[in-house]
Amino acid sequence: MATLQYTGVFALLLAEVFVFVMLILPMPTRWKRGMITWSSRSVLAQRILYGVRIAFGFIFVLFADAVMRLHRVQKERSSERLVDEHALCQLKLQQFYAQRNTYLTGITMFLGLILISTHSLVGQLVEGDTGAAPRLVTTGPGSAKAEVEKLKAELADARKEVEELKRKDRDMETLKKQADSSHKEYMRLADEYEKLQKQVDSSKEVKKDA
Question: Which of 54, 88, 98, 171 could form a disulfide with 82 if both were Cys (CB 3.0 to 4.6 A apart)?
């Protein structure tokens, strides 16, 4: 029974190593993003993760049992002097199994924690790369076509705004020219008025002298 339990722990350790290698293996961002998305949203992946968490509880119990067995075997070996070779071999064999089980369960739990942290870190990096990349839709030709149409509409609106600004600039230039011409006409009329006023004043002075 114990051998079956530790065989399961070893199988879980191999699965953790495989997943860890898949996470750190260089591959296209699209593939890695799909893998991260599947592991985060898939119902099957969530069930597997739930089962692994339960298995970690049993592994912790096995780890504690292996540590206590190892401590007991080492205490027996240091406190007793065994003359019988068979008994000495049995004690060494128990110590070997206790050490093996301790290392196996310990490294399985440790690698599980590293795997969880690595999964979270890779997910953040992939999401960061996706956000920094240009906003393109790659889910299908229909979505890409809709995105292109949207960009065309935005470009048309931008062109209309540019044309409107150009028209306003032309209107401003026209108003400036009209204002300049009005000012010149006003100055010309003012000069004529001043000349006429001088003529009227001079004619009045002549009449007074006569």
Answer: 88
Average pLDDT, the chain: 78
Question: Do 125 and 31 touch, CB atoms closer than 8 A?
Answer: no
Q: How far is CA 14 from the centre of its chain?
A: 29
Amino acid letter, 165: L
Q: What is the pLDDT of residue 137?
A: 45
Name the 3-class secondary structure at 25. Answer: coil
Give the count of beta carbons closer than 10 Å to the beta carbon of residue 147.
Answer: 15
Are the C-beta atoms of residues 99 and 70 closer than 8 Å to each other? yes
State how far the Cα of 132 lies from the Cα of 96, in Å rounded to an integer. 53
| Calpha distance 137→151 (Å, rounded) | 12
Q: What is the C-alpha to C-alpha distance for residues 6 and 34, in angstroms, rounded to an integer?
A: 33
Amino acid of residue 173: E
- Who wins on pLDDT, 76 or 189? 189
For the chain, the C-alpha Rg in angstroms (whole number) is 45
Non-local CB neighbours of 62 within 8 Å, separated by 6+ positions: 5, 6, 9, 101, 105
Entry field: residues in the chain: 210
pLDDT beyond 60 at 131? no
Task: Give the residue, 117 or 79, on which the prediction is more confident.
Answer: 117
> Crossing angle of helices 2-24/85-132, nearest 10°?
30
Tell me how far CA of residue 117 lies from CA of 23, 78, 110, 162, in angstroms. 11, 41, 11, 51
